[in-house]
């Protein structure tokens, strides 16, 4: 029986593993699980493309070996979470892998996960960076049992086609690459799954025609040249009369186009509605952002450069661990740290405010470790003017 990598991984992304991943990408567990459900078929389908020939499969095996993804650390989400450095270390491995394996398609895959799950693009990118090494680690574990070879990798990934048939049809376009006979199967299996329930359009065959039916028109065809001659003579005599009676043509006066004022607007583009607030996460007692939040902050800075009228309100919060005064100071320091980092990214300080609120305005209960982690945050709200 073939191994269904997608189902196995979905079953592993539960409980504490799911909560840890959700915290790392700055989302709640429910939305994170939706994003995982979109990410796994995209990654597995993409890897099926990348392992469709012996050369490609050998290259993928080399990537797994070079990055030590065949170690037990990457065998499952739970083992990856418990590894030294945890999920931040995993993202540092996965982010460059996304680009090196999928190239220009990595952006399309990120957009796909974001659109399917409703999770913002930054969190989707971080999630893919976490999931890709784990997917490759599970593939490595399977190959250790069947034999470490390009042919076994090709077979394993080709077998995943059966489990991708329920994936949305648009995914084929996201993953589409230069086709070989094997990659064509991966794409068409996804597309055909959607076509099976589309009723066929009936095709009606035209009735046979009598091959001698045209003979009756032959006398008419012979008359056509004679009719044309008389018509031409008649038309020529009419033209002679028309030329003699036609008045001399008046010289055309070119129309003067209406002059319209030409001007350019120096008004910068208005900020789109529905942006933010953006939650940035910190470790307990720390003023350093997680890797996912650092990436998100860079995207916020890019957006503010695109919309020069935009201003950022930066608000720091803590959980309820520690005393009020210490939490107030820590929240202010976190808000200031975010403002300083945005200034380092080229955003003028006059466009930002930073204020700490201590343990006020919690977004989750402080009775659990997961809730406290969600409360340790900085909210960045982008406003127009």
Secondary structure blueprint with pairings:
Layout: H1 5-12, H2 15-25, H3 29-50, H4 54-66, H5 77-82, H6 86-102, H7 105-117, H8 121-146, H9 150-159, H10 170-175, H11 181-195, H12 218-245, E1 278-281, H13 291-306, E2 310-317, H14 324-344, E3 352-356, H15 369-375, E4 377-384
Parallel strand pairs: 2-3
Antiparallel strand pairs: 1-4, 2-4
Helix pairs in contact: 1-3, 2-3, 3-7, 3-8, 4-9, 6-8, 7-8
Could you please describe the fold and organization of this structure?
This protein is α+β, with helices and mostly antiparallel strands and 385 residues long. It folds into two domains: 191 residues, no CATH class; 107 residues, OmpA-like domain (60s Ribosomal Protein L30, Chain: A, 2-Layer Sandwich), CATH 3.30.1330.60. Helix content is 57%, strand content 6%. The protein has 15 helices and four strands. It has a four-stranded mixed sheet with strand order 1-4-2-3. Helix 14 links the parallel strand 2 and strand 3. The longest helix has 28 residues. It is globular. The relative contact order is 0.10. About 14% of the residues have low confidence.
């Amino acid at each position: 029986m073939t191994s269904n990598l997608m189902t196995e991984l979905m079953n592993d992304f539960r409980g504490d593993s799911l909560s840890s991943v959700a915290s790392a990408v700055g989302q709640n567990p429910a939305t994170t699980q939706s994003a995982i459900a979109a990410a796994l078929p995209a990654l597995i389908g993409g890897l099926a493309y990348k392992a469709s020939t012996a050369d490609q499969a050998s290259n993928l095996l080399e990537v797994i070996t070079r990055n030590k993804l065949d170690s037990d650390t990457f065998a499952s989400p739970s083992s990856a979470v418990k590894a030294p450095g945890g999920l931040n270390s995993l993202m540092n491995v996965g982010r460059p892998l996304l680009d090196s394996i999928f190239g220009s398609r990595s952006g399309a895959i990120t957009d796909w996960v974001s659109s399917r799950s409703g999770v913002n693009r930054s969190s989707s990118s971080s999630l893919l960076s976490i999931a890709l090494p784990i997917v490759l680690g599970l593939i490595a574990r399977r190959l250790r049992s069947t034999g470490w070879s390009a042919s076994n990798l090709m077979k394993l990934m080709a077998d995943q086609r059966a489990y991708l048939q329920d994936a949305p049809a648009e995914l084929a376009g996201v993953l589409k690459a230069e086709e070989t006979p094997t990659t064509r199967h991966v794409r068409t299996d996804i597309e055909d799954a959607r076509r099976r329930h589309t009723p066929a359009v009936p095709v009606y065959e035209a009735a046979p025609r009598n091959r001698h039916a045209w003979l009756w028109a032959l006398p008419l065809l012979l008359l056509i040249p004679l009719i044309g001659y008389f018509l031409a003579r008649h038309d020529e005599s009419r033209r002679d009369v028309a030329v003699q009676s036609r008045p001399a043509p008046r010289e055309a006066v070119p129309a003067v186009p209406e002059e319209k004022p030409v001007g350019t607007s120096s008004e910068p583009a208005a900020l789109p509605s529905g942006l933010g607030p953006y939650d940035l996460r910190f470790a307990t007692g720390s003023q350093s952002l997680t890797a996912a939040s650092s990436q998100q902050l860079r995207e916020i800075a890019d957006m503010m450069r695109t919309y020069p009228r935009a201003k950022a309100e930066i608000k720091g919060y803590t959980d309820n661990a520690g005393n009020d005064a210490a939490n107030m100071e820590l929240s202010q320091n976190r808000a200031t740290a975010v403002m300083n980092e945005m200034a380092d990214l080229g955003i003028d300080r006059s466009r930002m405010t930073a204020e700490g609120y201590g343990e006020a305005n919690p977004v989750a209960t402080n009775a659990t470790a997961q809730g406290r982690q969600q409360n340790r945050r900085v909210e960045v709200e982008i406003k127009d003017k």
